[in-house]
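Figure 6 in text form: structure in, sequence out.
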């Protein structure tokens, strides 16, 4: 009789737990409004053409045009470089976290998965981030770039906000895909010999 009573209590507890997790709690969770941060940025290049040995400035002004977000990331990548070295110098930034330098071979998130999927970096990049990001907040990220060889110098810029709840949680929304399978805007500077 005692065993039957214990099994009945356990069975009843499991039934209550199952009912709560399947029918009651998801309804409460879904009734909470989800946040939709929306990153945006503008890029200004001081020059579109320079001579080898000269420098140009890359200025990025980013903002969150949507709801409050947990994390706001701005990334500048340099697909023509093997390493950043003395080519890229951060002049100023006002993000809450220190910039992160990524080198080829580093494990990075893939396809807006917020770290659930990963791949290896194919070229160097620098990421700045805020944690958290208020609605309407603006930040600045400025570099001095001194290319070491002539030709076209390419820069990829993108921004991602977390939670990543829709296509508006990253900017740009379409275009060129980078090594993370995420959209970037491409900026080019012609470096003359």
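Output sequence:
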């Amino acid at each position: 009789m005692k065993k039957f009573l214990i099994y009945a209590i356990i069975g009843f507890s499991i039934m209550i737990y199952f009912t709560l997790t399947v029918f009651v709690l998801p309804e409460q969770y879904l009734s909470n409004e989800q946040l939709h941060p929306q990153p945006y940025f503008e890029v200004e290049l001081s020059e579109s053409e320079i001579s080898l040995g000269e420098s140009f400035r890359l200025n990025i002004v980013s903002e969150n045009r949507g709801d409050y977000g947990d994390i706001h990331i701005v990334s500048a990548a340099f697909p023509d470089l093997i390493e950043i070295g003395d080519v890229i110098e951060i002049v100023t930034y006002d993000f809450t976290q220190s910039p992160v330098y990524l080198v080829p071979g580093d494990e990075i998130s893939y396809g807006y998965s917020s770290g659930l999927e990963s791949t290896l970096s194919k070229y160097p990049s620098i990421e700045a981030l805020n944690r958290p990001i208020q609605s309407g907040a603006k930040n600045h990220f400025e570099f001095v770039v001194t290319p070491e060889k002539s030709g076209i110098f390419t820069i990829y810029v993108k921004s991602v906000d977390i939670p990543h709840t829709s296509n508006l949680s990253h900017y740009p929304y379409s275009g060129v895909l980078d090594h993370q399978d995420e959209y970037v805007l491409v900026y080019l500077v012609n470096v003359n010999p």
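Caption detail: The chain has a mean pLDDT of 88.
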